[in-house]
Sequence to fold (127 residues):
Amino acid sequence: MYLEAFWTLRKDEWPMIRHALIFWSAVLLAVIGLVDGFVRYGFSSLTRLIIPLVLCAVLYLLYKYPPRRFAKNSSRSKTKVKASPKTMAKVAGLRKSQASGGKRKNYPFQVIEGSKGKNDDQLPKYH
Fold:
């Protein structure tokens, strides 16, 4: 029953199954290696895991709390840019129109007409 469903997969579903197969194969091999080491050497096999665990912990801590020399410079982030008078006039105009109320918002965008020209006969019917 499972094989029947497996062979009827679409082409776009194969990569997902392939990735899952690779992942679970790696997990299975890791578990087999841990069990084999524990059966052969007992608890002393766990001492071989200390270095990889410490390395993973150090990398996680460096990722979570990066050193200050790699952190973003706080003086750069506080730099302010002065807006031009034209931009300030637009912003002031927008604030006035918002304060006056109204159902329609005025956006500072404008429509640029195309150079091809329009032909209503060529427009699709579903528009």
About this structure: The chain has a mean pLDDT of 77.
